């Protein structure tokens, strides 16, 4: 049956809308699944074994609550986070943008380093040369005529590649799936492990929706025109999809690591994720790790660069007009710092602490905005989302401040 012109137009709009929602979800998800994500999941799984499944499940619930709060408020207000903050308190948006810029730049250096490592594993070339090549690929995406669509497609394809290859390694490692399922809902953690186990959950939350990460998809939807109260069902669907995509990748990686750990193998402390892939699937697995590492790193570079610029381009017409070149400059600077200094460990750790603070600060601002008529007009934010958000703000604030006061000074002793 041949479709009429109006029906074809509606079908095309539906496909385009679905592509935009999926693109935002993947942009957020791939921003979260960077080199740190791979190492973090490996270390925690080797430490807590099957019990780590419970930490993943708990973090997913918290992540969805955080992301639904932030994305819904951005959509309803039809404003970026920094502009919302400036309405609440003049200058607050600049402070929030500064946190995002510093944290994003520091972590992007690590992302560039991860991309270089991926090239090294795959082709045996110097990591710095690989970093330069990766930086040029990322720049090429933003130079394309339809940069937004190119970014969406790039993150979707590499997201699927990461999940598929990691799933292959998980199947090769033959994890105890039954035990993993049981411990996901009924963990057995000793009293001495409880504090570290709780910290692992908070780390997962910060690594998934902390810093610039959760804003990547929210701002992408806004740029694509998905906004206003009528868009909330779509926004909610995309927000949850982003978390679920991240969770699928983390779960598959968790099972791959669990299979290796359960078999009695010891991981290489200098590069735990690489040793998992190699122990599970031999030399082929090691090469697959190179692909996964590069894909994880380069997509995080793209997500970080996009979000960095989205936080400053509304401050002046000149910044908005030149946002593409600012994005490219951000990638060039990140790559240049890595080439000159290597991976700056202290800077990355400081940025990690700062990223932990960004989540409660940003979420607090948006929760206040959710009940400000000047920002959301007649929209009524669900009480359960407000309570959920306030709980996350309290827990993350306490632990982030603890890290800053108790742990960071030790780095300089």
TrEMBL record:
GO cellular component: plasma membrane
Primary localization: membrane
Pfam families: Nramp (PF01566)
GO molecular function: cadmium ion transmembrane transporter activity; manganese ion transmembrane transporter activity
The organism's place on the tree of life at top rank: Bacteria
InterPro entries per the UniProt record, alphabetical: NRAMP_fam (IPR001046)
Localization (cell): Membrane
Residue ranges crossing the lipid bilayer per the database entry: 20-38, 44-66, 87-109, 121-142, 154-171, 197-218, 239-265, 285-312, 324-342, 348-370, 382-405
Keywords noted in UniProt: Membrane, Transmembrane, Transmembrane helix
GO biological process terms, semicolon-separated: iron ion transmembrane transport
UniProt topology in membrane: Multi-pass membrane protein
UniProt-recorded name of the protein: Divalent metal cation transporter
Species per Swiss-Prot/TrEMBL record: Thermoactinomyces mirandus
């Amino acid at each position: 049956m041949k479709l009429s012109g109006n029906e074809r137009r509606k079908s095309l709009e539906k496909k385009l809308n679905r592509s935009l929602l999926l693109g935002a979800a993947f942009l957020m998800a791939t921003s979260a699944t960077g080199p740190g994500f791979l190492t973090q999941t490996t270390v925690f799984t080797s430490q807590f074994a099957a019990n780590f499944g419970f930490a993943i499940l708990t973090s997913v619930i918290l992540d969805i609550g955080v992301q639904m709060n932030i994305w819904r408020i951005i959509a309803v207000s039809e404003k970026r986070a920094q502009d919302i903050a400036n309405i609440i308190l003049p200058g607050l948006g600049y402070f929030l943008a500064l946190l995002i810029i510093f944290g994003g730049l520091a972590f992007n250096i690590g992302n560039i380093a991860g991309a270089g490592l991926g090239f090294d594993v795959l082709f045996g070339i110097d990591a710095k040369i690989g970093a330069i090549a990766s930086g040029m690929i990322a720049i090429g995406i933003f130079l394309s005529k339809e940069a937004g669509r190119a970014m969406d497609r790039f993150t979707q394809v590499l997201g699927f590649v990461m999940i598929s290859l990691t799933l292959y390694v998980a199947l090769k490692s033959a994890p105890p799936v039954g035990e993993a399922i049981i411990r996901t809902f009924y963990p057995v953690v000793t009293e001495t492990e409880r504090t570290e186990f709780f910290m692992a959950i908070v780390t997962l939350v910060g690594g998934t929706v902390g810093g610039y990460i959760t804003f990547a998809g929210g701002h992408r939807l806004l740029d694509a025109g998905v906004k206003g109260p009528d868009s909330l069902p779509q926004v909610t669907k995309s927000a949850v999809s982003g978390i679920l995509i991240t969770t699928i990748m983390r779960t598959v990686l968790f099972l791959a690591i669990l299979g290796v750990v359960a078999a009695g193998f010891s991981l290489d402390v200098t590069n735990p994720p690489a040793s998992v892939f190699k122990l599970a699937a031999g030399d082929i697995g090691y090469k697959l790790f190179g692909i996964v590492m590069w894909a994880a790193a380069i997509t995080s570079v793209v997500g970080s660069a996009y979000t960095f610029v989205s936080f400053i381009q509304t401050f002046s017409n000149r910044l908005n007009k030149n946002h593409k070149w600012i994005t490219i400059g951000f990638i060039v600077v990140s790559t240049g710092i890595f080439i000159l200094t290597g991976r700056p460990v202290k800077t990355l750790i400081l940025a990690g602490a700062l990223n932990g603070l960004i989540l409660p600060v940003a979420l607090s601002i948006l929760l206040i905005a959710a009940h400000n008529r000047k920002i959301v007009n007649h929209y009524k934010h669900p009480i359960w989302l407000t309570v959920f958000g306030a709980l996350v703000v309290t827990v993350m604030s306490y632990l982030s401040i603890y890290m800053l006061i108790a742990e960071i000074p030790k780095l300089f002793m």
